[in-house]
Amino acid sequence: MITISLCMIVKNEEKSLERCLSSVQKAVDQMIIVDTGSTDNTKQIARKFTRYVYDFEWIDDFAAARNFAFSHAEMDYILWLDADDILKEEDLEKLLELKQNLDPGVDSVTMKYHLAFDEHGNVISSLRRNRLVKRSNDFRWIGAVHEYLEVAGRIIDSDIAVTHCGDERDSDRNLNIYMKRLAKGEVFTPRDTYYFANELKDHRFFELAAVYYRKFLDEGKGWVEDNIAACGKLADCYLELGDNANALAFTLKSFEYGAPRPEFCCRMGYHFLQAGDYAAAVYWYRQALENPAPANTWGMQNLSCSTWLPHLQLCVCYDRLGMHQIAYHHNEAARQYQPDHPSVLQNKAYLEQKLGIIPVENSEETADS
Q1: Do residues 193 and 178 make contact, with C-beta atoms less than 8 angstroms apart?
Q2: Has residue 135 been placed in a domain?
Q3: Where is the Glycosyltransferase 2-like domain (predicted)?
Q4: Which residues of the chain form beta strands (DSSP E)?
């Protein structure tokens, strides 16, 4: 059986740290908690779980802090989490089983990262990350902001999921770090350029964000998943700026990097739906359902775009085409995922009246997206 060191960096995490550590403590043999300047009770909470609590002077460099934490690990493998992450009970059991059976020749184990959920607990946003790595390989974190763990060797994909609980964070922190680096004249890597554009977009600086996304794509050195994501984010920026032509152009550009993803099929469907070309919209929404993204893709996935959302929009399209029975079928499919969604319920009432299934008073004239 392998042994595991949990390595974390924290700052002012008194609201979430105990929840995180409690969720994983049964599976780890050592906890390394590196504090980067807390002014609350974070360190006191950490010491309830471990004596390995260290201070690290913050230097606007997440990779440096994470590498410092890794340097104190003593077990066979290192697991890393953030304070607003947890392992749900079923995932803790899976990790305990993995710990018993993992081949020591494995260099890294990836885990799913569930980032967002709907009101019914369905995962709507997810990606995959290297989570458990062999300590003796001395894998290093790279990047001052939006850092990544550079690994190599034998990597296996697990079905264990880490769940992000979405606590509030300093929304300006990362943007300020990038701005300081720019002011110093630092040359950004392609990854830096992409994530700087993300920060600009998140702060609604859409024109400047578009400049950096285009710079990132024009350099042609990005990771394919980031290239695809940048196309979607550029489309969003241009929609915010009222530039529908460029929004469409960068939706189409995403197809240069591989088979169309469900998110972009939905974008195309929405484009034609807005234009009143319902037959074309049907084609693209059906593509979203029939061609889901690869199960183990490392990029961000909006799972709504391959489940209930295309069905809901197909309901609208078929209704506008006068094909009410098919519209009803797709609304019922959407209702399997979103039984309480207002549009789904409105469509159900409207179409049941239209089809003579159940008379409903005060129905709308058309289906609602």
Answers
A1: no
A2: yes
A3: 5-109
A4: 4-10, 30-35, 53-55, 77-80, 85-86, 108-117, 123-134, 140-142, 148-150, 155-164, 301-302
